[in-house]
Structure formats: C-alpha cells, structure tokens
Task: structure prediction
Amino acid sequence: MNGVPHVSEATGDAAPSLAVRGLAYAYPDGHQALYGVDLTIARGERVALLGPNGAGKTTLVLHLNGILTAGAGTVEVAGLPVAKEHLREIRRRVGIVFQDPDDQLFMPTVREDVAFGPANLGLRGAALEERVRHALARVDMAGFADRPPHHLSYGQRRRVAVATVLAMEPEILVLDEPSSNLDPASRRELAEVLRSLDVTVLMVTHDLPYALELCPRALVLAGGVVVADGGTRDLLLDRDLMAAHRLELPYGFDPSSVPA
Amino acid sequence: MSAGHGHRLYRPGDSPVHRLPPHCKLLALVGFVLATVSTPREVYWAFGAYAVLLVGVAVLARVPAGFLLRRMLVELPFVGFALLLPFVANGPDVQVLGLSVSRDGLLGAWNIMAKGTLGVVAGVLLAATTELRALLLGLQKLRMPPLLVQIMSFMLRYGGVITAEMGRMRIARESRGFVARDLRQTPAVAKSAGALFIRSYERGERVHLAMLSRGYTGTMPVILDTRATGAQWAAAAALPVAALVVWAGALTL
Result:
C-alpha cells in the first residue's frame, strides 16, 4: 500500500482521488481556456485525458496542484479542496510528471532529485534515504541513484521523473504526455512501471494506443469542457466523436482488435 | 567554461584528500591562501616551504604533476602581466642577464608569480579532489547565501543541456547551408543566441513550475548532510596550520 495515513483520518476513504466541479479559468491576457470542467476519478483508477492541442489539458493539470487558481469552480483531492492554506499537502497528494524530464530533474544527481520532494515535506536522514530507495525501486532504477540525470537515457530520465513524485507518496499521479519521445522499448518499460503502481493515475496524452493499453477509462477535453467520458475502447471506436475533436488513430490501428 | 561532461578539473580517486568533507577542504584552502599572500615577498625561503607543502598534498592526493601543470595554464595571462612589470616599474635599476630592469618591478613580478602560482596550485588541487557538486554542498555548509548556491547548482545541471541545445541550433543552421565566414553572417548567429536565451528562460519557468509542484518554497532542503568528524577537521587543518607556522617564521626570522 501507499501508506497515506492522514488521508483517511481527515476525510474518510470514500472521497474520490480527484473531484473537479465547474472549473473555469481565463488567463490574465483574457484568453479563456476552461469553461466549466466536471470530472471525478475514484481511488485506484487509471484514466486517460485526451484532447487536441489547445483543448486546455495543460491548464487543467496546473489547477490540480494549485499552480493556477480557478476562476470559478472547485478542485478536491481526496476530499481536500485545492486552496492556498493547504497548498503543501495538496502538492504532496498530486504528483505531476511533466513532459520534458529535463525540466523535472533539476538536481545534480538522481538521488538528490528524488529526495527533493520528500525533503520539502520535512523528511530527513534514514527515513528520507528509505523513501528515495523505495521510489527508485518502484520504477526499476535502483542502481542509478548517484548518476547525474543528464547521463541517463531519455526513457530512464522519464522513469526517474516518475520516481521523484512517487517519493512524495501521492494520492494521484498526473502524467503529461508520458510516452512522448520514447522508443518502443522505453514505452513498454514505462507502461510496466505504471501498471505495477498502486496509485490513482491521470494520464494526459495524444498517444491513443498507449491510453488504451493503460487506462480502462478515458475523458475527452475539447474547447475547455469534458465532452466525453467512458470506456477508452468505446470512445476510440466512436468515429464521429473522434473526428469532431481531431483525435486520430495511428495508421492500421484498430482498437477492437486489441485484447482487453 | 567547458560545462557538461562531469568536469575535467576533477580527477576521480579515493585518496585521503578526496575523502575529506568539502567544507573542511574549502576552509583549508582559504587559510593557506591567506597565509601565502600575507607573507612578505622578500622572504624567499617561505615560498619554497609553501610549495613543498603543496607538493606533499599532491602526492597524498595522487595527483600527477602533468595533470597539475596542464591546469595551471589558466595562470598564463597573469604571468604575462608579471613579466612586464620589471620593465615598466620605476625605482633603482639592477642588471639581470645584461638587461637593466627596475628592482621594485622585479620584486613585484616575483610577488605576483609566487603567490599567484601557489594559489592556483592550491585551487587546482581542491578542484582535482572535490566534485563540483560536493563543492557546492561545502559552500552551502559554510553558509554561502543559498540563492547563490542554487544558481551555481543550476548552472551545473543545465550547462550541458543548454550547450546541447546550442549545438542543435548550429547543426540546424549549417544544414540549411549557413557558413559563418565573415562579419556579414553575425546577424544570424546573434538571432540564434537570442532564441537560445528565450528558450533557456522558458525552460527556467518550467523548471520553477516543477519545483513548486514538489513543495519548493524558496529554500533548498538540506538533502545530503555532510558532517565532518574532529579527525577530518584536524587532517584538513594540517595544511593551513603548517602554512601558518611558515608564515610566523617568515615574519620573525
């Protein structure tokens, strides 16, 4: 298990990992990116967030841990509303893995980078060391703690990036385009890691086969609202829906022929 | 600065000098340099003694002479300046190799050369036995303003990333037939530099977002706490204390 004791103390186990209600946001320059997003993700679910470029996916992600503050509506993580006063706990609960691992891995060594989050939460010494070791083992990168991040392959860096947020023992893992720039072997390795994790996952992606492979459920975000929510296979087989939102399957890929 | 691949000043090893905690070594270096620069320039034997001390450290750290000499090249510009001094300084002249040079200038040149060389060798020895990252931890430990330590550690991390980006931009330019032949080509290069600046700035913003997302509140948490034992302090103190003895001798004898 993940060992997140204070979640159940504070809110009870019934609260979903993520609940977004009526979320609207306009950037300071007046560009409105979100027009009222509603979504709920239960604990332990793996959900894909699909949508064309400019649909507001990144804007939505930045609301989940309070980097951006909602113009209207609410975001709750395991029952705790995203608000200034619990920003620290929210950022522990929501682990965002950004698209470019060079942005995520900013410390001189893998060990220090994985330790950065838990150290900000106040962990020190042996407890911190154990957290780092465990997080790296979960992404199969245990032997790389003393390497500088820029000496790792892209796929390894992506997995270390996942470890940096796992080390904070999050309630929900949010991945921004996890398969981008990965070769097929690294893609598969990352998929194995993600499947082995006992944590709620929200995966923002254009990679529809990857979404189908990893996420039983998918959401489609378009024009700043959630326009579809259902089984990933059902959504991918809905030609009209797909065509209406510039979602296209790779050449030769047939979702109905993939084993469930 | 040739950032990127590790760094070439460092020479991996496992000598007693390598193993000392970085902040002890930093303080030892400062102590040694203070002793040398405050030694009167006329006490020639003292500088010989300092050099012997450094040779001792180099032997203990197993840093070969060739390695040290190559890295001492950074001193060359100062040497050039020092060589000029005897010819431009005023005061009574002396004959050296048939040339008439200023006595004060000669002493001044010696002063710069001797103290500069000792300082450079001591610095090269520190860099050869301490990883840059450990050096930063040492500075942090010695209460260097955290913001400066953070800036330096980001330079260490992203120097290579930005150099690689610059390399890709150069390849992209040249792949489209660009050849930097003369001054007329500078606008294209300047625009690339501007683009690189903006890209780096935007990367900085994304890194900051990633830091905030993991609970950053303005200070770096202390992750690797290197504590020095009494024995390590004593070992590191050996060099500056020996230098201090020489210094005291130079002042009194």
